[in-house]
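Renewal narrative, Specific Aim 1. Our central claim is that a sequence can be written position by position from structural information alone. The example that follows is taken directly from our test logs and has not been curated for this report. It begins with the structure tokens describing the chain, in the order in which they were read.
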């Protein structure tokens, strides 16, 4: 699928923070179908049982796909929100130290709320985990009083990714 543009990464987020030594450091791409996708790797430090990623980290990735899906749909990174509910399903063990894909797509969007279907899959399109995440839209100043959210999202590193291939 064709990549339209790349989204910014933060400093310290556990999923996208490039300065977080414990983080996933995942990149995110706005796709031609108005979804967001990421090609990333979990690391051994994020395991639960040997060979498997911790369910909390997998759920954090599903959650991250939510706001980023809104940004992909609207192409507007000035909109913010917070999670009000997240239902996750673990379909198969999620391995670390191998390439994975995540995808998020907005399924409902009103003036105050939005919902996203989020998926973590292998490169063959096998769904490893998925979920529905619901958010309330809030101004960034209400989420992080005294913190400039945009200052916390400074990284936009071009990597020349033009397409993300996966089997449906």
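The sequence written for that structure reads:
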């Amino acid at each position: 699928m064709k990549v339209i543009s790349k989204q910014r990464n933060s400093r310290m987020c556990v999923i996208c923070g490039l300065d977080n030594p414990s983080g996933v450091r995942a990149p995110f791409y706005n796709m031609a179908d108005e979804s967001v996708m990421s090609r990333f790797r979990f690391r051994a430090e994020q395991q639960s049982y040997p060979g498997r990623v911790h369910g909390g980290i997998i759920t954090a990735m599903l959650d991250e796909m939510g706001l980023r899906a809104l940004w992909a749909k609207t192409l507007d990174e000035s909109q913010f929100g917070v999670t009000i509910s997240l239902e996750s399903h673990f379909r198969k063990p999620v391995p670390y130290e191998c390439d994975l894909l995540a995808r998020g797509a907005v399924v409902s969007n009103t003036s105050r709320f939005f919902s996203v279907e989020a998926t973590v899959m292998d490169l063959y399109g096998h769904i490893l985990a998925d979920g529905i995440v619901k958010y309330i839209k809030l101004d960034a100043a209400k989420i992080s009083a005294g913190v400039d959210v945009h200052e916390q999202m400074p990284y936009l590193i071009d990597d020349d990714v033009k397409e993300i291939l996966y089997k449906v």
